[in-house]
Amino acid sequence: MSCPLTSYHTHSQLHQELLSLAERHPRHARLFMVGSSSLGHPLVGIRLSRDLSRLEGPPRAGPLRTRPRVKLIGNMHGNEPVGRELLLYFARYLLESDARRSDPRASAMLDNVDLHILPTMNPDGFARGEEGKCSGGSYRAGRLNEGRRDLNRDFPDFYEWTLLREEPNYTEKDLYDRRQTETKHLMNWILRGNFVLSANFHDGAVLVNYPWDNYHDRERGSGVFRTPDHEEFYMLATGYSLSHATMPNTSAACEQWGHFQDGVTNGADWYPVFGGMQDFNYLFAGTMEVTVEISCCKFPHSRRLLREWEYNKDSLFNFVEQAQKGIMGEVREEAGNRPVPGARIRVRRVGRHQSPSERDWRDSSVTTDESGVFWRILVPGVYDVQAFVTKADPQTKERKTTSTSEVRRVVVQDEKRHRIVNFTLKKYRNKDDDGDDADPATVRSPPAPPSPRPATPPTSEEDAVDSSQIVQTAQPARLRSSKTLSPSDQRLVFQ
Ligand SMILES: [Zn+2]
User: Fold this and answer.
1) Residue range 85-100: mean pLDDT, rounded
2) Domain limits of the chain?
3) Considering the domain 11-325+464-492 in this protein, what is its CATH number?
4) Cα of 138 from ligand 1 centre, angstroms
5) Residue 61 has pLDDT above 60, yes or no
6) Is 406 exposed, middle or buried (CB count within 10 Å of its CB: 0-12, 13-18, 19+)?
7) Of the chain's two ends, which shows fewer C-beta atoms within 10 Å, N or C?
C-alpha cells in the first residue's frame, strides 16, 4: 500500500491499490469491472458494504434486508483527477476506519449503504494529462477519451429518450450505437445497476451541479430548468456543498466562475450540456446523480491532495448518507405474494389542503429491483405513494397499466432513515375495457428499465420491516379513466 494522498496513482498502481484493499478486507470489499477503456485498461471499481456475501446470490423471500445502492465516479475527464484520488482514499478510509473501529460514521456507512466506487472512467485520458496544469480541454491535454470524444457529451439525451418511448423501430440497442467504448460500459452499468444515488467528480470549478443539464425545449436557452424532483436534487447537492470547507463561498474558492448561492447550480442554468451523464442517470434509470466540481485547478500538484481530502471528507459522508432519506419498500403481487420486479413508483406531495390533484403525481424511472424492492429519495413532507405496473405494446409502444396498488400516505421526516412502505399489486381493470380512453396508461410513459438489478438477498435482522413507520393508508387507488390523468402520465413533464 502506498502512502496515501501524496501522489497520483498510475492506472496499474490504482488497480493494485484496489486489489490490495479487497484482499485485506474480503468480507466488506469486492472488486468489480465495468468494462475496459478504448486502450484496454480495465474500468475497475470497488464495492463496499458490510458482509457483502449476504447481499449476493438469488433473491430470497422474507423481510426487506437490502441496502440502497450508491455509486461515486471519478475522472470522467482525464485531466480532472482529484476525485480519482479522493475516491480511492475514501474506500481505504472506510475499510481501515471500520477495521480499527476508529470512526463510527465509516462503520455505519458499511452497515447502511451498498457503495460502488469507480475512481476512473477515462484512464486513457488521464495518462495524457499533466500534473500541475490547471486548464485544458483538448485530446492532448487529456480531457477526451482515446476516441477524441468528451464523455460527458456522449450519453443519450432527452431526444433519444423520447425516441425510445415513442418510435416503434427505435430500441435499446439503438441507444448504444455510435457511442464511445467507455460510454457504452457506463450506460450498461447505470441501466442495470438500480442505483439510488450517484455523484460524478470533476475539476475546473468548485461547486455542485444538478439536473437538468440541458433544456428539453429547443426554443429555450437560459434560466433554471427544474426536474420534477427539484427539491430533492437541491437537498442532495447542498448536502455536499454546505459540508465542504470552501464550496459555500464559490467566488472565493474559484474566482473565475463567480458566485453561486449555497455552492450549487442547476446544470442548464450554468451552461447547457447535451449528452451529459447526470441527465442520462435520472432520465433512463431513475438514479439521482449530481456533478461535483472539486478543484478550481483541473490537475493540481499532488501536494494539494491531502488538503482536498480534508475539504471534501464530510461532504462525501454527508452525500452518501442521504441515500437513506425518503422511502423504501417492497412490492408484491396479491396472487401468490411474489415480489414484483420492474414495478414503477409514483409519489405526490400532499399540501396543507390535504387534497392533491391527479396532476400532482410525480412519476420517474424509479422501479423495483429483482427482489421487488424500491428506494425513493424524498425531501421531508407528507406524500401519497403508489406502485403500478405497465406493459408496452411492442408495435405501438403504447403502455397500458396492468396492475396497481392502493395509495398510501406517508410522512417523511428530516432524518437519514428511510420510511418503509410496502405495496400489494392488484390486477388493474377498466370499467369499460372497450372504451377508447378507458385505460389510464394510454398516455405514453417513461420506459421501464431494461432489466432489474441483480438480487440482493437479506442481510441482517435490524433491516427488517418496521411497520410502525407507516403512518397511514389512504383509500384504495381509483385511477381516472382519462388519457391525461394516469399513473403513467408522466410528470417527468419537463415544463
Ligand atoms: Zn469535467
Assistant:
1) 98
2) 11-325+464-492, 327-442
3) 3.40.630.10
4) 12
5) no
6) middle
7) C
Cβ partners under 8 Å of residue 16, min gap 6: none
CA of 220 to the centre of ligand 1 (A): 24
Residue 479 in grid coordinates: 385511477
What pLDDT score was predicted for residue 58? 65
**Can you tell me which residue has the cell 413532507?**
381
Q: Distance between CA atoms of 230 and 212, rounded to whole angstroms? A: 9
Q: How far apart are CA 212 and CA 199, in angstroms?
A: 14
Residue 76 Cα, ligand 1 centroid: separation in angstroms? 7
With H, G, I as helix, E, B as strand and everything else as coil, classify residue 73.
strand
Model pTM? Answer: 0.87
Question: β-pairing, 197-202 with 288-293?
Answer: parallel
State how far the Cα of 189 lies from the Cα of 245, in Å rounded to an integer. 32
* Sequence-separated contacts (24+) of 314-317 with Cβ below 8 Å: 314/243, 314/244, 315/239, 315/240, 315/241, 315/243, 315/244, 315/247, 316/72, 316/86, 316/90, 316/240, 317/105, 317/109, 317/243
3-state secondary structure of 138: coil
Hey, is 345 helix, strand or coil? strand
Q: How far apart are CA 403 and CA 396, in angstroms?
A: 20
Radius of gyration of the chain, Cα coordinates, nearest whole angstrom? 22
Cα(267) to centroid of ligand 1, in Å?
A: 13
Q: Give distance in angstroms: CA of 202 to centre of ligand 1.
A: 4
Cβ neighbours of residue 33 closer than 8 Å, sequence gap 6 or more: 42, 43, 44, 45
Known catalytic residues are: 293
Environment class of 331 (CB within 10 Å of its CB; exposed 0-12, middle 13-18, buried 19+): buried
CB-based neighbours (< 5 A) of ligand 1, an ion: 77, 80, 202
327-442 folds as: Immunoglobulin-like (2.60.40)
List pLDDT tens digits, range 200-214.
Answer: 999 999 999 999 999
> Mean pLDDT throughout 422-442?
60
Tell me the CA–centroid distance for residue 194 and ligand 1, in Å: 24
Q: pLDDT tens-digit profile of 423-432?
A: 999 998 765 4
Nearest CA-CA partner of 424 in 329, 327, 339, 333: 333
pLDDT of residue 199: 98
- State whether residue 212 is helix, strand or coil: coil
> Is pLDDT of 352 > 90?
no
Per the CB < 8 A criterion, the answer to whether 197 and 70 are in contact is: yes
Distance of alpha carbon 495 from alpha carbon 479, whole angstroms: 24
